[in-house]
Design brief:
single chain; 219 residues; alpha/beta; Rossmann fold; Arc Repressor Mutant, subunit A; 2 domains; 3-stranded antiparallel sheet; 11 strands; 42% helix; globular
Amino acid sequence: MARLLLVEDDEILSETLVELLEFEGYSVSLATSGNKALEISSQSEFELFILDVNIPDFNGFELLEMLRDANNITPAIFLTSMNDIKSLSRGFELGAEDYIKKPFDFDELIVRIKAILRKSFDAKSDELLYGEFKYTISTNELHDTKGVLINVRPQEKKLLQIFFKNLDKTVSKDELLYELDADGDASEGALRVYLSKLRKLGLSIISQKGVGYKLVSIT
């Protein structure tokens, strides 16, 4: 599932958004202040930031600026009641992908989230066809041609997301190990076991000697 960091200090709104986003299949981490958001973002990787502008410690614009200065290029959406051109311009200049004005329709938020996630995968839809499989970007799930979910371990799901995000591109071994390290299982031996399992499922993952691994398209 895609991992989202929600930064929102309104208790009722944040609880509602977490519940609704998790119902949609996303993994959500909540931060209610700028400092907490920095702490969480330094400890985990996310596919998307959803940032309120008016938050404790410093505002959402300053938060995104700090993240970008730290070379964090995770896509971001601002939630804000502001609608003046100056505020909008600043957000986009800092690297935000989108704005949603409060109050907003939840369905609209989901549409925009899916659009941004598709963009990060360079895809035109939320589903990627791969041989006899269908990969869903928003939920990071793999199904067979009959629509049956392929069950894999959390570490293998993490690898699935990386490989489909970089389809036909070589991903370094170090990057794969870094992603697995969050689960405390980043040994090269463990990586080989996970790759072997994915290959047995039918994924064409090839080794680039001395460089890394590549998921190759199946035509």
